[in-house]
């Protein structure tokens, strides 16, 4: 079964940017599977952030629209979440997910703080 590994999280200040990556263990994974990013803040349920379909259609939660961008590389092996103008409410563990296969990564922590 394909596995996902997220990376790129860290500690940043409000207004800064981060790029998260989601690497798949199998080639061309994101050519054949819709991928989504979710996040889970302390004490809250996991929430959907963005989706990238195999047809390159993108959709975003209202809370991140205009600030975040989801994408994949040309080889279909890595998905990305570019996050701009971060604020403290973006603090969470971020997970990537293969929607129809139900596969999750282990998560990467993003902390936005002064």
Explained architecture:
This protein is mainly beta. About 5% of the residues lie in helices and about 45% in strands. The protein has one helix and eleven strands; from the N terminus they run E-E-E-H-E-E-E-E-E-E-E-E. Strands 2, 4, 5, 6, 9, 10 and 11 form a seven-stranded mixed sheet that branches. The longest helix has 4 residues, at about 30. The chain is globular.
Give a short overview.
Helices cover 4% and strands 47% of the residues. The chain contains one helix and eleven strands, in the order βββαββββββββ.
Mean pLDDT: 97
Task: Tell me what portion of residues adopts beta-strand conformation.
Answer: over 45%
Total DSSP helices: 1
- Secondary-structure class: mainly beta
N-end to C-end Cα span: 40 Å
CA radius of gyration? 13 Å
What composes the largest sheet? Answer: 7 strands, mixed
Shape: globular
Please write the string of helix (H) and strand (E) elements. Answer: EEEHEEEEEEEE
Query: Could you list the spans in which at least 5 consecutive residues all have pLDDT below 50?
Result: none
């Amino acid at each position: 079964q394909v596995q996902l590994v997220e990376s790129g999280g860290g500690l940043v200040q409000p207004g800064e940017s981060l790029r998260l990556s989601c690497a798949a263990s199998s080639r061309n994974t994101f050519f054949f599977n819709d991928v989504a990013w979710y996040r889970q803040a302390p004490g809250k349920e996991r929430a959907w952030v963005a989706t990238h379909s195999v047809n390159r259609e993108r959709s975003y939660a209202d809370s991140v629209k205009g600030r975040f961008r989801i994408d994949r590389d040309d080889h279909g092996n890595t998905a990305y979440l570019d996050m701009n103008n971060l604020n403290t409410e973006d603090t969470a563990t971020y997970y990537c997910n293969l929607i129809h296969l139900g596969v999750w990564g282990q998560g990467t922590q993003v902390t936005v703080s002064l």
